[in-house]
Design goal:
Blueprint (H helix, E strand, L loop, with lengths): L2 H15 L4 H8 L3 H9 L2 H13 L8 H10 L5 H5 L1
Length: 85
């Protein structure tokens, strides 16, 4: 599980309870203002389940992974742009 995300969400809520503005929180934590807003919409306890759901999702590349690996092993000089075509 990605504890950094859970920790970040907890910190955002902590600073908000202390009275800091969203702009101040994003500067203090070095995250985008939209991330602060998004994190405030999640309750800290819900954040654990949200992060767990991220690890269970299948990546978009998974169905094509075997094909891409074959291309790269057969033609190591190919660039990503050439493979995309």
């Amino acid at each position: 599980m990605d504890f950094e995300k859970v920790n970040r969400i907890t910190k955002v809520h902590h600073y908000k309870k202390k009275g800091f503005s969203n702009a101040k929180i994003n500067r203090m934590l070095g995250i985008h203002r939209n991330t602060v807003r998004s994190d405030l919409q999640k309750k800290p306890k819900e954040a654990i389940f949200w992060v767990k759901s991220l690890t269970n999702r299948e990546r978009k590349v998974e169905p094509y992974k075997e094909t891409i690996v074959n291309w790269l092993s057969n033609e190591p000089e190919l660039s990503a742009a050439q493979i995309e075509n």
